[in-house]
Amino acid sequence: MDNEKAFAYLEDHVNLEKVTGIAAGSVGLSLDRMRRIVDVLGEPQRDYPVIHLTGTNGKGSTARMITALLGAHQLAVGTYTSPHLEHVTERISRNLEPIPVDELGRVLDELSSLEPLMGERPSYFDLLTAAAFSWFSQEAVDVAVVEVGLLGRYDATNVADGEVAVVTNVGKDHTDGVGDWRAKVAGEKAGIVKPGSHLVLGETDPALRQIFEAEGPGTVWVRDDDFGVIADRIAVGGHLIDVRFPHGVLDAVLVPVHGAHQMDNAALAVAAVEAFFGRALDPEVVAEAFAGLSLPGRFEVLHRGPLFILDGAHNADGARAVANTLADEFEVSGRRRWVLGTLAGRDVDELLDAFGIRPGDRVITCTPPSPRALPAADLAAAVAARGVSVEEQPDVADAVEVAWRLAEGAGEGDLLMVTGSLYTVGAARTAARRLGLLG
Predict the structure, then answer these.
(1) Do 306 and 233 have their domain in common?
(2) How far apart are CA 416 and CA 309, in angstroms?
(3) Is residue 439 assigned to a domain?
(4) 437: alpha, beta or left, given left = phi > 0 and alpha = psi -120 to 50?
(5) 294-313 pLDDT tens trace
(6) Burial of 426 (0-12, 13-18, 19+ CB in 10 A)
(7) CATH no. for residue 104?
């Protein structure tokens, strides 16, 4: 099977992520299907230790930070994340280098020949999860960093038993917000915590802690109680932080990304790796790991003067983080331009409030490349109702090009922010590459 046929084979399987927004590979509150798949493959997810991550926001950033820290210890690190920005190969990587197209095609070919033995037909996410586990085994990685697709307990990735379970936070995504939704979401995320494992808990609500502890972890570290940022200074190109852990304190760690929320993610990542090794990390190794850190699509600065930023914020918490980071770390004295594209089902007014979009701003709405996209016209109507100047450019690439041409000829203090969905940001990165703003 050549690459074209291999990727067509993948696309021929139901992609719940596109249709419903649910990336979980196992439907119907059961992991039976995914267990059959990995059984046919010979349980590749047991060939290496796993650090398993869940949480509403920050999973992808924290996974990249953990991978960088492990890689700085000269380990071969497999990382599985979702969704991708520009190409599906981004989801499966070795030391943050995406799986080569030919390699993913070969692994998918192997899975296609074994599918008749799997029983129930796998989903798109099942196949990618199985491909990741299988490729990591073939590559003989030393450790795998695995990000949950949805919640945790019945996510396809949960056939792996994480030695370290990491929970970033508990937010409102994938819930109707009715009743005790936080406890219900926490209960599903807690499903990745295996008996005897080490839980690194970034969620600080004391009412939720017992839900995670009920899963029987051997050790629990909670952010702000057992580890956390104790000082945070804005530095050139990022932040300089002091962080404490059960094994000691790291002083003046330079984290070259933007946003105070990312410093919490950095503390979580170091705590996870300390939990994995069972010891303090060498400050020089931490410095080396973070020196080359980049977070594509997460407050990614493509240009300065005018300022051009991409951020995949898709919910109110993420949007507030964008607004706070702009206010705290950047001087925007001129016109603020936004390219916005989001998915249906979001509370658009809540999202616009959180971003702080106001009269005087200029907004171009677009339609993200997803079957679940909110049409650009619908988003434009919500923006216009606030008295904000708005126009529609349904295609993301067209929206980015129009906005950049306007910003490029404007003042040094102007801002162009592209945000609202990772699907929007992924398409925007491709457009920015064509404009010569990305290598």
Answers:
(1) no
(2) 6
(3) no
(4) alpha
(5) 999 999 999 999 999 999 99
(6) buried
(7) 3.40.1190.10
Q: Are residues 168 and 315 in the same domain?
A: no
Which among 429, 364, 431, 424 has a CA at the least distance from the CA of 401?
Answer: 431
**Host domain of residue 147:** 3-291
Beta-bridge mates of residue 51: 145, 164
Rounded to whole angstroms, how far apart are CA atoms 439 and 436? 7
Residue 174 has pLDDT above 60, yes or no: no
* Domain end point (choices 248, 270, 291): 291
> How many residues comprise the chain?
439
pLDDT at 397 over 60: yes
Whole-angstrom distance, CA of residue 255 vs CA of residue 233: 10
Q: What pLDDT, on a 0 to 100 scale, did the predictor assign at position 17?
A: 73
Give the DSSP letter of residue 350.
H
Q: What is the pTM of this model?
A: 0.95
Helical axes 316-329 vs 260-277, angle rounded to 10°: 110
The CA–CA distances, whole Å, from 426 to 87, 90, 197, 396, 400 equal 9, 11, 35, 9, 12
| Residue 314 confidence class, pLDDT cut points 50, 70, 90 | very high
Compute the distance between CA of residue 358 and CA of residue 336 in angstroms, rounded to an integer.
9
Give the C-alpha distances (Å, rounded to integers) separating 76 from 47, 71, 97, 428: 13, 6, 11, 31
d(CA 191, CA 167): 11
**Given pLDDT bands bounded at 50, 70 and 90, which one contains residue 26?**
very low
Tokens of 114: 């074994």
Q: Which of 267, 291, 315 is the last residue of a domain?
A: 291
> For 30-85, how does the pLDDT look when each residue is reduced to its tens digit (9 = 90+)?
899 999 999 999 999 999 999 999 999 999 999 999 999 999 999 999 999 999 99
